[in-house]
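Write out this protein's structure.
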Amino acid sequence: MQKSRKRGQRRTTLLGAIVGLMIIFTFVLTLIAPDLGSRRSSNADLDPFATPQPTRLVIPTPDPDPQLTGRPPYLHSSGLFQTFLPAGDDWIVDEGESVQASAVARVVISSPQRLVVIHNYIQPGVEYESLDSLSANYLTEQHFAGAWQDYDSWEETGRTVGEEGVVVDFALTSEGHDYLGRTTSRLWQDWLFVARIVVPANNPTLLDLLQTLVIPTFQGFPALLALPSDWRAYVDQTAGFVLRHPAGWTVAAGSPGRPATLLLNGANNNERVRLWTEPETPIASTEAAEAWVRAAATVDAVLSVATVQREAGRGYLVAYRTLDAAGDAHSALTALLNDEAGTLFVADLQIESPDANLLDSQSVPDAYVAARQSVAEGFIVLPASSRSATP
C-alpha cells in the first residue's frame, strides 16, 4: 500500500515536471517567434492586385447543377462598377482596402465550401493602344507573379486575345492541391478591368460557367468613372440610383429604398443634397421640368434648364434660386432623371450662396464646383437588371 502511494506520488511529480517544461518551452518560443502559426498570412493586403487562395483543404465533388444565378449584381461601394454575385448563402464578399492610395476598386467574392474565388478590380491609368499591346507589354510573367503570389506555384497554360479581352488560363497549386485559374483583362479608355476566377482543378466546367456569368455582368458606369477617383458614392440599389460625391460629405439620413440627405463638407442643414424617387412621374420637356421644380420647392427664380443623358436614364438639370423659411435666398440645382418605366429620380443640391447659377460654370463659387459636378454628372440611374428587391 505504501509502495503504491509512493509510485503515485512519483508519477504526479513527473507529470508536473513535464507540464512545467512545456509551459517554459512555449513561453520561450513565443519570445523567439511571436508570430509563429500566422506567418502564412496573405500578401493581398499589401498588393491589391493579388488574388487570394481558397481557404479550405477538402476538394469538393463537382456539382452538375451549382445553381449560381438568381441574384442581382453586386454593386461596388465606390459606385464605379458592378459584377456577378452568385446565389447561395455560402459566398463571402470582401472589398478590402479599396479606393485608397492605389486608387484601385476591388472585390473578392469567395466560397469556402466550393473552393471558388472571384476577384474583380478596376485600375485607372493603364493606357495601351490595343489589347495586343496590353497582352504583350503589361500582362507579363512579372505581372502574373504578383497576381498569384499567394499560391505555391502557377503556370500559364493558354492565352487568347479576343472580343472579351485578353483571356489567360493557369494551372495553380496551393497547399498540395491543384486549381484552375482564368484572368480576363480588358480596357475602357485608361481604365483596366480585370476578372480572375479560381476553381478546383477537377471542375473545369465550373470555370467555364462562371466565365459566362461574370464577364457580361462585370461592367463599369462611364459617367462615374470620369469623376475623381478618390470620390465616394451613395449607393441605393433598391431605389436604383447612385450619387458619386466628394469624400468629405456625410450621410445625415437614408436607407435602402428611402429618401436620403447628404451634407456637404462642414455644412449645416442648408447645404445639402437630397435624393429620392417618385413613381410614374415622367418629365418630357424643359417646361415640365421647370413646372415640377416650382411645385416641389419655394422658388424665387428658375435660372436655366438643360437636358442630360445617362446610360439608363435621361432628363433635365434645373438651376434655380430658392427661399428658406426665413425668406433668405439660396442657390440650388436639381437633377431630374426618368427611367424607361417613368420613375423619376431626383437629386437636389442647395448651397448658401444666393447668386450662383449652378448650370453656369462662370458663376459657381470655387467652393461649390465639386458639389455642382456631383449632381450634374455623378447622379445616375441603375439599369433595372442591377436593382435589388425592396427589403
